[in-house]
């Protein structure tokens, strides 16, 4: 398999899960602005949406969208319990957390990484991120280790990656003790350390 990624982007969640399942895969960085991959491929021919991640399977088929990829990997390695069984209430809760990570939490950071966002737009974005952190901190208050209350799941990978973005946009997590402890805890997993090292990122 081959993972098309941008350093530290949401594609890092897929990278972490590929490590969790001990997959054989390569990674290839993407330059969205110039529509090129590290090997010189035209990225829009791989993913016309020009977003990461994109995962090329051994069959050469391409899967895009983080939630789709994460669930595919978890379901194809169901023995690792990275996602509850489809059709169960716990799976619905997992989907709830993945949807929050994607449509609420992830999206709130957008202006903070944009070169074109105004100061006012960035200030609004910070407030939006802080409100999502308030929710996540409350959610994690009842969790001993992982968001689902059992073992590590694909939701933890995604929530960790988004939460870790706070370090890059100057948001101090000390206001959210549960989120801070969660990020530190997930960051100690070997799959996370390996993925971050491969992408040239420090653990924190």
Plain-language structure description:
- This protein has two domains: 2-79 and 192-199, 3-Layer(aba) Sandwich (Glutaredoxin), CATH 3.40.30; 84-189, Glutathione S-transferase Yfyf (Class Pi), Chain A, domain 2 (Up-down Bundle), CATH 1.20.1050.10.
- It has eight helices and five strands; from the N terminus they run βαββββααααααα.
- The protein starts with a strand and ends in a 6-residue tail after the last helix.
- By secondary structure, the chain is α+β, with helices and mostly antiparallel strands.
- α1 (11-20) links the parallel β1 (2-5) and β2.
- The model has no long low-confidence stretch (mean pLDDT 96).
- α1 packs across α8.
- A five-stranded mixed β-sheet has the order 3-2-1-4-5, with helices on one face.
- Helix content is 47%, strand content 9%.
Radius of gyration: 17 Å
Beta strand %: 5-15%
* The first-level CATH class name of the largest domain: Mainly Alpha
**Number of helical regions:** 8
Q: What fold name stands as the CATH topology of the largest domain?
A: Glutathione S-transferase Yfyf (Class Pi), Chain A, domain 2
Structural class: alpha+beta
Compressed to H and E, one letter per element, the order equals: EHEEEEHHHHHHH
Number of domains: 2
The largest sheet is: 5 strands, mixed
Reading side by side through the largest sheet, how are the strands ordered? 3-2-1-4-5
What form results from the Cα inertia axes? globular
* Percent helix: 40-55%
How does CATH name the architecture of the largest domain? Answer: Up-down Bundle
Q: Total strand count, please?
A: 5
What oligomeric arrangement do these chains adopt? single chain
The N- and C-terminal alpha carbons lie at a distance of: 27 Å
């Amino acid at each position: 398999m081959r993972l098309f990624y941008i350093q530290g982007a949401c594609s890092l969640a897929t990278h972490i899960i590929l490590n969790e399942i001990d997959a054989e895969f390569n990674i290839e960085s993407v330059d969205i602005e110039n529509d090129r991959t590290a090997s010189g491929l035209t990225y829009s021919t791989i993913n016309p949406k020009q977003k990461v991640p994109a995962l090329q399977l051994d069959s050469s088929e391409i899967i895009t969208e983080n939630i789709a990829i994460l669930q595919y990997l978890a379901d194809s390695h169901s023995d690792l319990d990275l996602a509850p069984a489809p059709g169960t209430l716990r799976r619905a809760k997992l989907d709830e957390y993945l949807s929050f990570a994607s449509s609420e939490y992830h999206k709130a950071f957008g202006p903070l990484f944009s070169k074109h966002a105004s100061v006012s737009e960035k200030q609004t974005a910070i407030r939006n991120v802080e409100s999502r952190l308030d929710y996540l901190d409350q959610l994690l208050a009842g969790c001993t280790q992982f968001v689902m209350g059992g073992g590590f799941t694909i939701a933890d990978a995604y929530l960790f990656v988004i939460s870790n973005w706070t370090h890059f946009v100057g948001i101090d997590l000390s206001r959210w003790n549960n989120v801070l402890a969660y990020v530190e805890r997930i960051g100690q997993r070997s799959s996370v350390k390996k993925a971050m090292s491969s992408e040239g990122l420090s653990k924190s």
